[in-house]
Amino acid sequence: MAQEPYISLRKVEVSYNDYVAGLRGVSLNVEKGEFVFLCGQTGSGKSTIIRLLSSQIKPTKGEVILNNRPLSQVTPEEIPELRRQIGIVPQDFGLLPNKKVWENVGYAMRAIGRTKAEVRDQVPTILERVNILQRADAYPSELSGGEQQRVAIARALINNPPLLLADEPTGNLDPAHSDEIINILLELNAQGTTIVVATHDVNQVERAGKRVIMMNAGLIDEEIDAAGTRHEPEFVPEQVKTQEIPRNPLNVSNAEPLSQPVVLPTETASEPPHA
Asked: What would the pLDDT profile of 11-29 be if each residue is shown by its tens digit?
């Protein structure tokens, strides 16, 4: 019997109002242990998918399934526990400026109920995983952009999550630091973590050699597998089959930030993000 995909979007639509749609009928499967890039210009829908997977918003139509569980069945009381199984890496780092590197990670651990002993025991290991242990006593203002992003990734790893969602993780970084961050994500993926990255960083996408989902106007434009072979989307909504939608080249250049979702309540889609 075939194993169900780890992530499945089934004809998902997200409407923010009568005139603005985040997604217009997206079907997408991601297998456990995959590394997938979501690419496209601002407004293409890639960050909307990240928001759906982290239960920040609910679809207007269709279903989002994570690890065999429809997210429509998740109650508001269950959302904090669900998010503990997902690591979130926002573009804006979101570090506490008055706390050192180890304290930023430890504070996040304490917020979810870890003891001081667990913090002392686990923080060095987490920092070492992202090559930032040597800067454990530094404050965010003393770190480079790449180092701050490594701390943000470390914080996302506090529960050793099976799924890591990253929104424009290299959007604020120069090429050298971007290389470092993508290498860390590739290493985490090699250890078994499923990773979904929303990005416009064409150079990093091409260098990584992973599956790419090209988004355009709330739809999947095309898929590029790890071997570089291009595929048409498996599902195209009937209402858009006859519409002429300009195709976007891979070299889009607009970033779309996402705030850390762990403090946000579940909401139905009411106003558009930058996605």
From this structure: 999 998 878 888 999 999 9
**Amino acid at site 2:** A
Q: Specify the DSSP class assigned to residue 42.
A: T
The contacts found for 236-243 with CB under 8 angstroms, 24 or more apart, are 236/25, 237/11, 237/24, 237/25, 239/25, 240/24, 240/25
Could you tell me whether strands 86-89 and 69-70 are parallel, antiparallel, or unpaired per DSSP bridges? unpaired
Q: How many CB atoms lie within 10 A of CB 86?
A: 21
Helical axes 101-111 vs 116-129, angle rounded to 10°: 130
The distance in angstroms from the start CA to the end CA of the chain is: 36
Rounded mean pLDDT of 102-119? 92
- Residues 18, 21: Cα–Cα separation, whole Å: 8
> Looking at residue 125, what is its pLDDT?
94
Tell me if residue 238 falls in helix, strand or coil. Answer: helix
CA–CA dist 38, 32 (Å, integer): 16
**Strand-pair partners of 58:** 268
